[in-house]
Amino acid sequence: MSYGVEVWISSSSGIKAFASTTDNTKQSPLAGIAADPFERMHLAILKWTLGVGKSTSNAAVWGDCGRTPIVVRYVKQVTDFHNRLARLELEDSPALARHAFVEQKKLDLGWFRALESMLMILDENKLEHQLYNPLLCQERAHNRFIKLWETERQSNKKLTFYNKVKGAFEQEPYLTLPSRTGSNLVARIRMSGHKLNVETGRYGSRTGSQHHRICEFCSEKSMMELFVNLPCVDPIIEDEEHFLRTCPRYHSSRTNMKEPTKSLLFHDMKSLFLPEHIVEFTKFVAQLCRTRFPILPKPIIG
Question: Of 171, 196, 220, which residue constitutes the final position of a domain?
């Protein structure tokens, strides 16, 4: 996918969204980046690897994989290419590439305009006739993306649980589990890419109706349909925390958990995803999922 990135990146919608400094568009910069055909392919591969659906939040997928979009990953490579051409111009080289670069620059054509626009944002202190700093541009591109990512995930209502357990932008330890089925189950819980009612109740005719999101083990659905709109009713929603911590349906699974994983479940859920606890926690999640969704295959966890 990165072959010829120095040439095609400037015409991609990803670079236009990433280099934009205006807020006139209703679309967030990350949505613009994700809409680029190359990034759509990148995200499709990551989501397939994680075992989550196509509608799973892109911010969560980038964050747990610790992978920035293609337009960010190859900034240094693209900057080096731009500098090589600019150096040919400074040296008044007779090379054909130099003449092509000068023509792009003189006519302010699309490739040069888009690339220059992005590099000027990332290295705004560059003086005339100087070359861009590739390492600085790469670092600032990464930092710029992380800020956009933080804003996106914090404002996404679907990622309420994810924001409670996600720390820094980095690859999560559960991705190194020997069982792909186990890591997929953890990914779905973290990213709300599961089939719990809090998620399935968001779509179609169920949108905005709380009784579609209740835990059917803890509440009588037919009764909730009658009383859900009353101000005194506080329905028990089947969300991630209820599923993992409080639903009595899974009490025996919680009882059988080993310490200190059991204690962390109630007092420090973020730590459950650390390397020293992730295997035990994944076994627990697998037991819960087999109870809630009996058709799931049993993961083999080392």
Answer: 171
Of 161, 181, 160, 184, nearest in space to 172 by CA: 184
Distance CA 88, CA 53 (A): 47
- What does pTM read for this prediction? 0.86
Is residue 256 located within the same domain as residue 165?
A: no
* Position 293, amino acid: F
Selected residue with higher pLDDT from 35 and 202: 35
Tell me the angle at which helices 96-107 and 110-122 cross, rounded to the nearest 10 degrees: 80
What is the spatial distance between Cα 39 and Cα 203, in angstroms, rounded to a whole number? 26
**Amino acid identity of 202?**
R
**Assign residue 92 a region: left if phi > 0, alpha if psi is -120 to 50, beta otherwise?**
left
Tokens of 20: 């934009």
Instruction: Give the span between the Cα atoms of 11 and 118, in whole angstroms.
Output: 12
Give the per-residue pLDDT at 301.
45
pLDDT at 299: 47
Most confident range (mean pLDDT) of 190-199, 208-217, 240-249 is 240-249
Give the DSSP letter of residue 204: G
**CB atoms < 10 A from the CB of 5, how many?**
19
Determine the average pLDDT of the residues in 206-211: 60
Would you say residue 121 lies in a domain? yes
Q: Among 149, 171, 193, give the residue marking a domain's end.
A: 171
Q: Quick one: tokens of 153? A: 């995930």
| Average pLDDT, integer, range 72-98 | 93
